[in-house]
Design goal:
Length: about 475
């Protein structure tokens, strides 16, 4: 139903993040990575690190405080409270700036396959489990979809690996190759720069449909032009069946609205910015077929795979054993996601460093990462350099420079994304990210269009951003 198109842009320089119209609840303050001391959540022992049992509270408290934000419901706030009460301490540090982290449910709670609303099933804990209220649709959105669409039939096939409520035997890494890995397509053409010199794209940003992003798509477009970009790709969180982490994504019934919203922005910025349609597509073992079908529902330019360990369903199923073990599981899934052949690129590839960020130590996990990167390199799938990592608990881009060097050694293509959930962040820190890439050994940086990878010289991209930003200043 939707397609993509292209135009051009002009621009200005990356704007600093703060300015924002709506009082945002600060999602997650850059967490102090050093201060933590409590005990972890992880039930089994957490040998190497102590984690804060109490720390969660602090953040939670803060997060839950109504920031005074008016309209949209902040999913983060909604869930946070639970965290404090969650039976098993939630990874306190787990919060990330852009993605609300959810509290983890009691182990016995609803299995992912069940359609039950995520939060509803919460525990016996007295704590108020705020049920996420769908945020009011922004005015502009209402224009497009004035009438609430009835929930569509769920296309999603039940995950075969789903564990029964008793969760007896859930293969940790169910290997069920659903889609034969297809070799990535690399475009041989080198799209020209715009009149203002813009050449590159910001390939990761959201819309209010995910319930934790603010601003109309056109506001993101305006910022992109100022930032010296040629185009942007909206990659909002995909719908998922069975109520999977429902509070941070569009519903099934909003999928068409999402596509039309991006189309609206594309039309509004015709000849000024190339607005493209993408999707941040969840990877969770058992849902491969659903994702495969989802990718056929629209004419996507870019399908960005993402493993979100913060999802309560993910924690429920995989958070067992040690902290390091959980991180290894995450990287195992990252490699597995590339091997499905479903995605063009893997989002924020070391996001798990925000799981108990105080104890994150790359040296310890390096061998695991090395093996994981070897597997990803074989698939040809690209990996993202996500600049929003600077705003997360473990304040560093995703991936960090050590991992980036390992990616460079394996010649894994990299795509930049700001992961903006607010318009002012579009294109943020791109020059820094490009310099990091160059220092890591890269000569090119990529983006996708029509699901074909386009590689550009880093030096050309840097100069294009500066030139276009100045031209649009
Ligand atoms: Zn998000
Ligand atoms: Zn993500």
């Amino acid at each position: 139903m939707s397609k993509s198109a292209s135009n051009k842009a002009k621009s200005n320089k990356p704007t600093p993040k703060s300015a924002i119209k709506k009082p945002l609840p600060k999602p997650s303050k850059p967490a102090p990575k050093k201060k933590t001391s409590a005990k972890p959540i992880v039930k089994k022992s957490a040998p190497k690190k102590a984690s804060p049992a109490g720390k969660p509270t602090k953040k939670a408290a803060k997060a839950s405080a109504p920031a005074g934000k008016p309209v949209k419901a902040d999913p983060k706030k909604a869930v946070t409270p639970q965290k404090t009460v969650a039976p098993k301490a939630a990874p306190s540090s787990a919060k990330t700036a852009s993605k609300p982290s959810e509290s983890k449910p009691p182990k016995t709670s609803t299995p992912p396959a069940k359609p039950a609303p995520a939060i509803a099933t919460k525990p016996t804990v007295p704590a108020p489990a705020p049920v996420p209220v769908p945020p009011p649709v922004p005015a502009l959105l209402k224009i497009i979809a004035p009438t609430p669409v009835p929930p569509p039939p769920k296309p999603a096939p039940k995950p075969t690996t789903k564990a029964a409520p008793g969760k007896v035997n859930i293969p940790l890494f169910p290997s069920e190759p659903i889609a034969p890995a297809k070799p990535p397509v690399i475009s041989t053409e080198k799209p020209p720069a715009t009149k203002t010199g813009a050449l590159y794209y910001d390939s990761h940003m959201h819309t209010p449909l995910c319930k934790h992003a603010w601003g109309e798509p056109e506001e993101y477009c305006a910022q992109a032009v100022k930032s010296g970009l040629k185009g942007i790709i909206f990659t909002c969180h995909c719908p998922m069946p069975d109520g999977f982490w429902q509070i941070v994504r569009m519903s099934e019934s909003e999928f068409d609205l999402y596509v039309s919203l991006v189309q609206r922005a594309k039309d509004a910025y015709k000849n000024k910015l190339d607005v493209c349609l993408g999707i941040e597509s969840e990877y969770f073992p058992g849902y491969e077929k659903y994702i495969e079908d989802l990718h056929q529902r629209a004419d996507f330019d870019y399908c960005l795979g993402a493993v979100h360990w913060q999802a309560k369903e993910y924690l429920h199923r995989y958070e067992q054993g040690t902290i390091e073990g959980f991180r290894r599981t995450y990287f195992e899934h990252l490699a597995a996601s590339a091997e499905t052949g479903l995605y063009d690129c893997l989002a924020h590839p070391d996001l798990v460093k925000n799981y108990h960020p105080d104890s994150w130590c790359f040296a310890i996990i390096k061998n695991t990462v090395s093996t994981m990167l070897d597997r990803i390199a074989k698939t040809g799938v690209a990996m993202e350099m996500n600049t929003s990592g600077l705003n997360k608990s473990y304040s560093e881009m995703n991936p960090g420079n050590e991992m980036l060097r390992m990616m460079a050694e394996r010649k894994i293509p990299v795509v930049l994304g700001s992961d903006s959930h607010r318009a002012p962040r579009v294109g943020e820190h791109f020059i820094t990210a490009l310099n990091n890439l160059a220092e890591a050994g890269y000569e090119e940086v990529s983006y996708f269009k029509k699901r074909q990878r386009i590689d550009l010289k880093i030096s050309d991209v840097i100069s294009s951003i500066r030139r276009a930003a100045d031209a649009n200043a």
